[in-house]
Design goal:
Oligomer: single chain
Structural class: mainly beta
Order of helices and strands: HEEEEEHEEEE
Shape: elongated
Distance between the termini: 63 Å
Largest sheet: 5 strands, antiparallel
Strand content: 25-35%
């Protein structure tokens, strides 16, 4: 009986934060193998929008600036945000510098024969996001107003 209680206690998932469960790939009665992912937890406490700004615009952007976030699913609703951070590196153009390893965001900057300015990710924290509206990977437009 002790073994059964011990095994049952080890079969529960405890999230260290309020989460949304997605990508559940196991059902009751199935065996979960060690090291195999069976569920994805999305941290719903804080939502972020990532916007890629051209390198020439970065000098006008600073953490703490007010931002407006618009979701593709709700284009007429404005959500308030604050610039949290500005990226300090992106993967260089392999035609110019060569190939780098993993670790830097890969923001494409070529359009056929036209060479575009590098774009750097700016992370915007959405303030007081309504429950059940935001989704990971959703398309958003970010505007900054200089405040």
């Amino acid at each position: 009986m002790k073994d059964a209680r011990y095994n049952l206690d080890n079969c529960r998932i405890y999230a260290p934060f309020d989460a949304i469960v997605t990508n559940l790939t196991i059902a009751e009665g199935q065996y979960a193998h060690v090291g195999t992912q069976v569920v994805t937890l999305i941290d719903a406490r804080t939502w972020w929008a990532l916007a890629d700004f051209r390198e020439g615009q970065l000098r006008h952007i600073r953490p703490g600036m007010h931002a407006s976030v618009y979701l593709m699913s709700r284009p007429n609703e404005r959500f308030n945000g604050v610039v949290d951070s500005i990226g300090y590196g992106v993967t260089p153009d392999p035609d110019v510098v060569g190939h780098f390893g993993q670790g830097l965001p890969d923001v494409q900057r070529t359009l056929n024969w036209v060479h575009l300015a590098a774009r750097y990710p700016v992370r915007v924290r959405v303030e007081n996001p309504p429950a059940d509206i935001f989704r990971v990977g959703e398309t958003a437009v970010v505007t900054l107003d200089g405040r």
